[in-house]
Design a protein that fits this description.
Elements lengths: L3 H17 L3 H13 L1 E9 L11 E8 L8 E9 L6 E8 L9 E9 L2 E5 L4 E2 L8 E4 L1 E2 L16 E7 L2 E2 L10 E5 L4 E5 L4 E9 L4 E4 L3 E2 L11 H9 L3 E5 L2 E5 L5 E7 L4
Parallel strand pairs: 1-8
Antiparallel strand pairs: 1-4, 2-3, 2-5, 5-6, 5-7, 6-9, 10-11, 10-12, 10-19, 12-13, 13-14, 14-15, 14-16, 17-18, 18-19
Length: about 270
Amino acid sequence: MLNWKSISLLAAILALAGCTQPSQSEADAQQAQVSSEQASVNGEVWYRERIALPDHAKLIITLEDVARQDVATDVIATEMLVLDKQQPWAFNLNYDAAKITEKGRYVLRARIEVDGQLKFINTTSIPAFNNSDKAVRIMVSSVAQKSAPVATAALENTYWKLDTLNGKTIKTAAKQKEINFVLHAQESKVVGFSGCNKFFGQYTVDAKNNAFTFSPLMSTKMACINQDFNEHDFLSALSKTTKYKVNGQKLNFFTAEGKVLVSFSAVYLY
């Protein structure tokens, strides 16, 4: 039989539990608040070329804040799709709405890769939020056109593969990703791969005087084993660049004294 002390203690415990446990309506409100932080942007990706991609090609969509030019792009969300059918490809990119601010400038970037190599990318800035109910359409372009090669490759929006570094020929081993970069003219941004890590940054070009400089480059911090190529030397060479010259399908970067630092070849993927 419970005495009066036991009854009082039990009543106190029940009262405390009633105070600390939220009601059903409060729980529903909390869940609604959490759910309201999630949002999505819908759209489709397509290209003009009459080319069929292999069924293991990958489409990567990113939502990025490019408001600040002095720091690396802030990636808000990423979605990767395996392209098991032909274009156009629909996407539904989920993101955290709490990360969207009035000061941001948000764009969508789309790229298609096959076996780790870039094949297509959008070359114009695509606003992520167009203030309409219509889905966003992103047209991607081949990194370079094999079917209609030009006498002189364009410096920007071309996929450049490393040939030499400080006078030494660089060869890519089988099944390894080649060292490369692309200069995105729309945002004056360089994005590339340096042997183990991805690198990125801004650049300035004066075509009239063949002047070219990179801003301080940043990179990911992956540790790679059995890495023979010296990424530091490569990025250091890029940072010393003051001049450039495109001769046919070749690109050279020079020091102020005219010494060749690195050379590249334009790669035509299609």
